[in-house]
Amino acid sequence: MKTLEITNTDDFLAIHLVADFGTLLGTYTKGFAVIIEPYDERLPHIPDPVLQLSCLDASLAMKPVFSRFQSVVITSGTLSPLNLYPRILDFHPVSIQSLNMTLTRDCLCPVVLTRGTDQVSVSTRYEQRLEEGNLRNYGRLIVDLASVVPDGLVVFFVSYSYMDYVIARWHEDGLLEELMAHKLIFIETQDVMETTLALDNFRRACDAGRGAVFFSVARGKVAEGIDFDRHYGRAVVMIGVPYQYTLSRVLRARLDYLRETFQIKESDYLAFDAIRQAAQCVGRVIRSKADYGLMVFADKRYQRHDKRDKLPKWITSQLKEAHMNLSTDMLMVVTREFMRTMAQPVGQEATGRGLLSQSAVNAIWEEQQLQRKQQALEQQAPAPMQLG
């Protein structure tokens, strides 16, 4: 293009894309796959083949970092479970540490909702997600929370299609009309401009004291980077367990690659990814030590140890035994008590609780030294003799 001195390159954009695709295809020989999807996942009913080069190995992005820097610190509030990250990123950590969140007061209230007021279990499992009683209990949960929680309430669904279906059913049953009596309703869409406008109006409603509910989607634009700090998010509800679409060819290729290269089971990766997304969603409401918020995991599967134990330590440390198997009416009692407690002023004596004491720092240092000694002993241990 430069040799021919073509000025209007916009007319040759398609050729540019094909050339860039070919360059990437020739650059990487391992960890990538060319995948053809018969349709776009967002519009499965419209035949529209998609050809894409998908990265299956996240360690490729980290290798330049490890080769350039001598010391690398990877930190996040959703790095859980910790033992899976070194395997996915293909490195050997010197130290792994999970720290509690230092708070001036118990401003986090995670709860697990397993059933509605009628004692019928709630879940987004494929066999149960569209049942009438299940949808009604989810709708009644949001209406009851909106009547108790002040200012902003954020609700996350597992997918756009499920959110659209559920909201349409709630409208038919009159639940949205009940919800509008307590708060205004705003919905995330797949259009960036519409979502930006909805977020702006959501914040205006909270600032004006009217209160608002924001319906969003896990793995969506809002869940990935929008904070609902202060009065914009006094409660967040995660409806269901946000598993990836398991029939996706990209996901199937990634699962096969992880199993063959890093010996990571499909079930382990899918559960790890889903719980990480759920933790990221509920963490949108806690952005500082002065914040407070209610975190509702609305699915009976969160009661199981294999799901709950994968949540970050800063959530599980605040999850009380009495809050792990609640119905909607029991949740309302917990919510009223929590909101009433958080409405009280914070005294000066509570400030010191948010700081690490010298003894706590020494305990962390001693634990790290012990881990280093154990790792050194493991490396020095002689290899077992083989008898020929």
Which short descriptors sum up this protein?
single chain, 13% strand, 9 strands, 43% helix, 14 helices, alpha/beta, two-stranded antiparallel sheet, seven-stranded parallel β-sheet, 388 residues
* Major sheet: arrangement of strands: 5-6-4-7-8-3-9
The beta-strand count equals 9
Secondary structure: helix percent: 40-55%
Average pLDDT reading = 87
Order of helices and strands: HEEHHEHEHHEHEHEHHEHHEHH
Q: Would you identify the regions where 5 or more consecutive residues have pLDDT less than 50?
A: none
Output the number of helix runs: 14
Structural class by sheet pairing and helices: alpha/beta
**Largest sheet properties:** 7 strands, parallel
Strand content: 5-15%
Shape: globular
Distance between the termini: 65 Å
Task: Walk me through this protein's architecture.
The structure is a single chain. The protein contains 14 helices and nine strands. The longest helix is centred in the last third of the chain and has 23 residues, at 358-380. It has a seven-stranded parallel β-sheet, with helices on both faces. A two-stranded antiparallel ribbon has the order 1-2. Helix 7 links the parallel strand 5 and strand 6. The model has no long low-confidence stretch (mean pLDDT 87). It is of the alpha/beta class.
